[in-house]
Design goal:
559 residues, eight-stranded parallel barrel, two-stranded antiparallel sheet
């Protein structure tokens, strides 16, 4: 290790789905963390506080037994489990953090306080009750889980139940409350409780706009010198095609920690493996150069169970990230060699089966795998992005014209952070051809990869090699689906601007091709015994719905 190069002092591993409640998965992660000298374990669940506390101020024992006995028992069992996890982590000198999207609440709170909804049925986020509720939950949590190291929160997200960012209440109080003021009240409520208990508050930048990001970061700086800012390496979410997050360069007295998705929610969900090593090294350097001191890695996703870094080839990304975070002088060659010593998992066996990693015996396995995983990354970026713009929801096929439009141009709009990139999405024939060329190139490269590579060359057991070779079959058919999506979407987009009959006829021909492909995809998946999550990202019904939607738009245009 070159100690002249600064590293990340805090290095964490995040669970973000139900694996966190399975001891086998947690024990395996703790072993990994100890082996690779990681010092933060993070459980990320939107309602994690509500899984552990009632709180008792609002729900008496008698009331819980009378109306909600299952929840009353569950909060205690889960609390006992969490304390067990913390105890085992502390034995290995690993701190434990909750990551939550507060403010959340159990549904029965609305039965007790129906006035929290306005006349239109919307929750009022500026009702003073919510800050009192948050403070009470936090106090009870700290009593029940005393060895918790801190809490990571996301006040600017639209994914919590109560948020100023997604507010639909139009009462006078809400109209007179700025985002800045609401964030400040929220952060101060948590900060006061955690600081008193000697715990850390980490405020996560999960903002959908530049304005929300600025308001949130300013609120943190105004409230406490020891609040930690948690920043994605790119703005808003984990897209490797996006520019670096400008917030990382912010000059601030607050400590900055970074979060990174090593599993690949937006790179094939870990199901279609690819190397993020070059991106990890580049992002690490940028963050370290701008004073970041901590980083943690997400290893799964809340909406998709049975799949994580630990049962896919994308384990190389987690291994590489932890190695490079501790020693920024380490090289991709060292990372791939270490991965081969650790062992491989295929991604085609569900994680709960808990198969041990398989170690390849070929001396050149690391080099072969580095070439394969790097090529796979290049193919996937051209497959599921459009010149760097988000063209999918979590690596999945999309079901309608508006769904693609909203993901790409509204909810996950690269142009908000990189205005010049908007030019490629303009509805012109030149852009249409450029985009299709990218998709067709991805398909060609995927076909070449599937035809030329053989996992048996790595010196693996025959059965395991066959299992891995089934992955290769997915690349070309996955790429072809996105190729047809691009043809019908951008073709219809161009027609809607120009209204030329020849453009509509081209869209309809391509839409027939999309329908044919969806049928071939259905037959392909029916003939193979892939885990459920493979079908989820390649669902034929999504493309059938897209075909029907394009037909509808064409019919409306003809009227």
């Amino acid at each position: 290790m070159d100690r002249s190069i600064p590293n990340f002092r805090y290095r964490g591993l995040e669970f973000h789905n139900d694996r966190m409640w399975k001891w086998g998965s947690v024990a395996r992660a703790l072993d990994f963390m100890e082996k690779y000298d990681m010092n933060m374990l993070i459980f990320h669940q939107n309602d994690l506080l509500d899984a552990i506390v009632l709180p008792q101020k609002y729900f008496s024992e008698e009331e819980m037994w009378e109306y909600w006995p299952v929840r009353y028992c569950t909060v205690d069992t889960r609390c006992t489990y969490i304390n067990k996890v913390i105890s085992e982590a502390r034995k290995r000198k690993i701190d434990f953090y909750f990551e939550v999207k507060e403010i959340w609440y159990p549904e029965n709170i609305l039965e007790k306080f129906p006035g929290l909804r306005n006349e239109q049925g919307h929750i009022c986020p500026t009702d003073p009750f919510w800050m009192s509720f948050l403070a009470e939950k936090t106090e009870e949590l700290l009593r029940k889980v005393p060895d918790l190291s801190g809490i990571i929160v996301s006040p600017a997200t639209r994914e919590s139940k109560v948020s100023i960012s997604a507010n639909q209440c139009n009462c006078r109080r809400c109209q007179n409350t700025t985002e800045d003021a609401w964030y400040a009240a929220y952060i101060e409520t948590l900060y006061r409780k955690l600081k008193k208990a000697g715990k850390r508050l980490i405020v996560r930048d999960f903002s959908y706009s530049v304005h929300s990001q600025d308001a949130l970061l300013k609120a943190c700086e105004d409230i406490g010198d020891d609040i930690i800012l948690a920043l994605k390496c790119v703005p808003h979410d984990f897209w490797p095609t996006f520019p670096n997050n400008p917030a990382v360069t912010r000059q601030t007295r607050l400590e900055k920690w970074i979060e990174y998705d090593t599993w690949g929610q937006y790179c094939g969900q870990g199901i279609l493996p690819c190397s993020l090593i070059e991106d990890i090294i580049s992002r690490h350097r940028f963050c370290l150069e701008n004073g970041s001191t901590g980083i943690w890695y997400r290893t799964d996703w809340e909406a998709l169970d049975e799949c994580s870094n630990f049962n896919t080839l994308n384990m190389v990304n987690l291994i590489g990230a932890t190695m490079h975070a501790k020693d920024p002088s380490c090289t991709p060659e060292e990372i791939f060699r270490e991965w081969c010593r650790y062992g491989l998992s295929s991604g085609l066996t569900e994680e709960s089966v808990m198969q041990p990693p398989v170690i390849p015996s070929a001396d050149t396995a690391w080099d072969t795998l580095q070439t394969f995983m790097t090529r796979a990354y290049e193919i996937l970026i051209k497959t599921i992005y459009v010149k760097g713009h988000v063209f999918q929801y979590s690596s999945r096929y999309q079901h309608s014209y508006s769904a693609i439009e909203n993901v790409m141009c509204v909810w996950h709009n690269r142009s908000d952070w990189d205005p010049e990139s908007a030019q490629i999405l303009e509805a012109t024939e030149e852009n249409y051809q450029t985009i299709l060329k990218e998709k067709e190139q991805a398909l060609k490269e995927a076909e070449t990869l599937a035809a030329a590579f053989d996992f048996a060359s790595l010196g693996l057991p025959e059965a395991f090699s066959k299992e891995l070779n089934q992955l290769l079959l997915l690349y070309p058919i996955y790429a072809e689906g996105f190729c047809w999506m691009a043809k019908v979407f951008f073709g219809m987009r161009l027609y809607q601007k120009n209204r030329r009959r020849d453009l509509l006829e081209r869209v309809l021909r391509d839409n027939d091709g999309l329908k044919d492909f969806a049928g071939r995809l259905e037959a392909f998946l029916r003939q193979r015994d892939y885990p459920f999550y493979v079908r989820w990202i390649m669902e034929p019904d999504e493309l059938k719905r897209l075909h029907a939607d394009i037909c509808r738009l064409a019919e409306e245009a003809a009227v």
